[in-house]
Amino acid sequence: MKISFLLHNAYAIGGTITTTFNLAGALAERHDVEIVSVLRSRERPPLTLDPRVRLRPLVDLREEQDHPAHREPARVFPAAEGRHREYSRLTDERIAAHLAGTDAEVVIGTRPGLNVHLARQAPDRVLRVGQEHLTWDHHSRRLRTVLRRAYRDLDLITTVTDADARAYRRGTWLPGVRVEALPNSVPDPELPPAGGDSRLIVAAGRLVPMKDYDTLIRAFAHVAAAHPDWRLRIYGRGEERDRLRALIQRLGLSDHAFLMGAAVPMESEWVKASIATASSTFEPFGMTIVEAMRCGLPVVSTDCAHGPREIIQDGVDGRLVPVGDPDAFGAALLDLVRDDERRRTMGKSALANARRYAPEAVVARAERLLAHALAAKRAGRRPPGEPGSGRRRLTAAKQSAHDLAYTAAASAVRTVRGWRR
Amino acid sequence: MNSVIRVTCVADADGRLTFGLPLPAPDSAHLLLKARPRKGVPDPAARRLQLEDAGDGRALAVLEPLPVLEEGRWDAFLVREPDAEPQQLTSGPLDLRVLVDGARADRPSPVAVRIPYRALDGFLAVRAWLRPAHAEAGPIEVGDKATAVTARLHGTELGEDAVVRLRGRRSREERTVSPSVDADGRGFRFTVDHADLTGGGVRYWDVHVLPTPDAAPVRVGRVLDDVADRKHSFVYAAAPHGSRLVRPYYTVDNDLSFEVTDPG
């Protein structure tokens, strides 16, 4: 297959870029794969891309920042999308030209605005795949309204969790569009797994409110009080650093809990630890949980939507505790701190269970999903029961009726809410 | 232009470092460790390490515990042929797990430490310390009026009359305090009154211990684990004293000092 990814900016650092590079690289083993980056902000991508994957930018910001068409607002890229201001008439045109002329059999969008481009501009001969790297519930009401309409012209939507796939099926009416979970993959670690003997707990992620490191630090205070030879290291940078450091000092943990700054690759740090943690209030997937498990660590995580509970089997390869509850989190940590045997056993289970996120496992699932969707599209089973050429007009009529009804309902809800306030 | 070469590094408990390069046939290639040039040192030291085929597509180079590395930062390069231009190596995963608890064992003199790390530019470097003796700082408790430091001496022993000396940087001012010394002559603990540091115009105070009053001063620092740069991660609270703030901190060389500042 010839597969073409459409990415916001491959020349930056972020979770979507990492996971797109991982998937593209793994697919390149058997397929012809390219990544088309709408924007280019520097000479080279800072993250490592498999040399078999071709990378091509559409708008080079270093030269075209002042292009007249780049100063006019985008019309195809939806205004309700978070990155709308970075898009323009220029990106609308370049993406349209790229999609019209593509010789790929499969195009894959990697964020809602780009999925809308695929739905509206990719030719019918191409399999149009929209990837959701956040979650349906995370989007604004305005954006969801846009997506409900546009996504009907996709062939396949992939979410990173089953829970989010269910949320999509519940929250949308997309006849003939398959919605399936395709988790992120984590490359095979290069270092031998953690031994489980150290007295070190490690967490990683940006220092932002969503990660709720307050809860982790307060939970760890229970551990430090009972077992003063244990340490906590938090890797990552972010706006919360000074506030978290003040909390550490206030709790008297300056020699026990440390904000270490960023570490690349995290693998070097995971293997030193014997327990990993994730304390988020919301986690669309939970990449660091999988990374830590692939290094042989049991993970104590909050049971937040959506990722952790699909990755961790509570009591087998980690623990799930209520969100924002330092006492429960601390008790779960203490259980593992006090029981060397259990910690090591859970670490071994984590290592085995996380293999389902190895690139070859995830890419095999991606290939199956793409092959099924392609076969269904070629057989004209879209929408089901209406084979052949007339489908677009028919569905278009159905769609607009549905949209009208939906818009009316949505505005009624808005009115009622506004009235109550 | 040459492509990026990622090197891995494994540290073992007795100080040996094993570097791994994705180089199936090392032939006459070798790994070069070059001391980073410092002011007043015209000809930086270098170590050449033989690369050997590991049989799995990698080539390995071993830096044995002896001879010790001079103190400083060392950068890693690949030299493909005897006269080829050295190519700097990018840091891949580092396996430093055995270093984490390195402060638990007593070290003989000279105290030689090596911590591989990924420099800010992504290249692999090795941070080395080499001192006749070393005082490893442990817990530091910042109180309202004083800061208490627990430490352990490596490479020599403390007498009953040991002295902790704080020396004003770029100043002749000194303060001394008497530590309480453990029975083993290694562990010690001392308390610094903030009032002693805030009187004059000294901003930075460097902490040393003199095992006996006429012995050479031994710098107090924290280098016996896996953390190559702790200035920004091992951070302590600042205690207000009058209109000034007193704060213990680790320098860029992981040595312990106190800083006195005027807030605002």
From TrEMBL, chain A:
Entry superkingdom: Bacteria
Molecular function GO labels: glycosyltransferase activity
Keyword Glycoprotein among record annotations: no
Keywords for the protein's UniProt record, in alphabetical order: Glycosyltransferase, Transferase
Domain Glycosyltransferase subfamily 4-like N-terminal stretches: 13-186
Claim: Cell wall biogenesis/degradation is one of the keywords in the record: no
Stated name of the protein: D-inositol 3-phosphate glycosyltransferase
InterPro entries named among the record's database cross-references: Glyco_trans_1, Glyco_trans_4-like_N
Pfam families, sorted: Glyco_transf_4, Glycos_transf_1
Domain Glycosyl transferase family as annotated: residue spans: 196-350
TrEMBL record, chain B:
Keywords recorded for this protein, A-Z: Transferase
Superkingdom of origin: Bacteria
Statement: the UniProt record of this protein carries the keyword Transferase: yes
GO MF annotation: an example: transferase activity
Protein name from the UniProt record: Transferase
Organism: Streptomyces griseoluteus
